[in-house]
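Work Package 3 (structural annotation) set out to generate three-dimensional models for the target panel prioritized at the project kickoff. During this period the team completed the workflow that converts sequence records into discrete structure tokens, so that structures can be stored uniformly alongside our sequence database. As a representative example, we reproduce one entry of 308 residues exactly as it appears in the project archive.
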Amino acid sequence: MDLEEFEFAALDALETAADAETQALLESLKYVRKRRDGERTSVCVNSVEIGGDLFVMMAGPCAVESERQVMETAEAVARAGARILRGGGFKPRTSPYVFQGLGLEGLKLLRKAGDVFGLPIVSEAMTDGQVEMVAEYADIIQVGTRSMQNAALLAALSRCRRPVLLKRGMVASVEELLQAAEALLANGNPNVILCERGIRTCGRLTRNTCDLVAVPLLHQLTRLPVIVDPSHATGRRSLVPALARAAVAIGADGLLVEVHPSPQNALSDGVQSLAIPQFERMMRRLAPYLELWAQERERETALSAARR
């Protein structure tokens, strides 16, 4: 065996070992793992299907600050092509001295904006005690990065009929994300959307490091929809459009983007929020990527149907 053959044999051995580890993981996941026929499941929220044949843009402010702010944002993102309105009533913040959200009042304002502009809404519940309240106003309940392994919260969401948007923990592995999703499905809630939002590494120039390869990996391993949050993954609005294009190109089912009428005056995460004209420009520039995305999704659907 010459050196080149030896190198390729070593690579094959590594891939075989990785496949064995993957298989062991999949055997422990009875509900989230991909079906033998390759068919994916989608999550339907009102008339919006996440994981289906249309790419889904979710956009809105990090936190609801006022009626004027959320109504202006909802109108703009709906006009630009967003299909779901995002926004926080409750905001988990690292510092106790910064804006923590309007709470129930914020949820009411978000619901009003969603109803006016025909957008389902997604908002975060931070504790199991908030699930019932958030479910009354939100169509999708978000599990934030700090809460991915909050067992009490996951248990409460398992009993809730609302779909769950499960964000990857900031220091969590893909395996841990899948296990958290398994906890939701195994205990009764089949409507789970996975979200890659970046993980914490040694870099300091961006808020997080986006593990973009997690998107196709999760699609290989699981039947659940996978979206990307480029706002938290970068922490810099100038980088959001580029990462959004990359997320579409790599096959994500949707995006979760922060938009604010006046980012410089935002009470939460203004530095990573797009201004409305920036969001509109990003949506226009995404158009050719979305055309390719639709073609690839059509091809995948046809292959899956042929296998069945």
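The chain has one domain: 44-307.
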